[in-house]
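Supplementary Methods S3. Complex input for the 2-oxoglutaric acid-bound model.
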Amino acid sequence: MNSLFEPIIDGILAEGYGIVDNFLTANEVSALAKRLHERREAGQFRAAGIGNQQRTVENTIRGDEILWLEEASATPEETMFLQRIGEFVEYVNRTCYLGLRDYEFHYALYPPGTFYKRHLDQFRSDSRRRLSVICYLNTDWQETDGGQLALFLPESDGSTEHELTIQPIGGRLVCFESGRLEHEVRPAGRERLSVTGWLKTA
Ligand SMILES: O=C(O)CCC(=O)C(=O)O
Ligand SMILES: [Fe+2]
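Predicted complex, serialized as structure tokens:
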């Protein structure tokens, strides 16, 4: 596992973000995607809100539907995912002393045409979110499907920024500092699936 975790951390330390492919195998991706669809068909998903106090649904800002993962009701593939994240958290704490204590993850489904406008993941009133983690569950994603994640990376002198666009390829994991990197999800032409979460301090 360290061979997966190390490049993520190296990337975060050097540039504020890390990307690794095959964090999940193709089989794990399809098992989680299948479970996501079953849970959505069972009516467990909700339109995502914005803000953490008065949560409001605002589909001009974000159009995804989400379901939080709960350890107690997790299926085997969900438990496997959360365990792998737990190992990653241990690795981060050993190598970077971020003092991570907790994590929270939700499934996200973006119906065709939906997006998430440019934002920062840290709530003003909750700075415990240190690292944002997104793991994609899309099979055969093509560039023409859209749905890229754009990261807005400041130049080191702070004068300008450049954009990095990332394809939401199944099994790929993206991790970045929640309080620092603004980002957005571009509209996708087909359903776009992921598990998204935050590694938090106490
Ligand atoms: O799905 C993605 O690529 C990013 C999602 C995101 O920014 C969020 O849920 O806060
Ligand atoms: Fe975000």
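The chain has one domain: 2-201. The longest strand covers residues 100-110.
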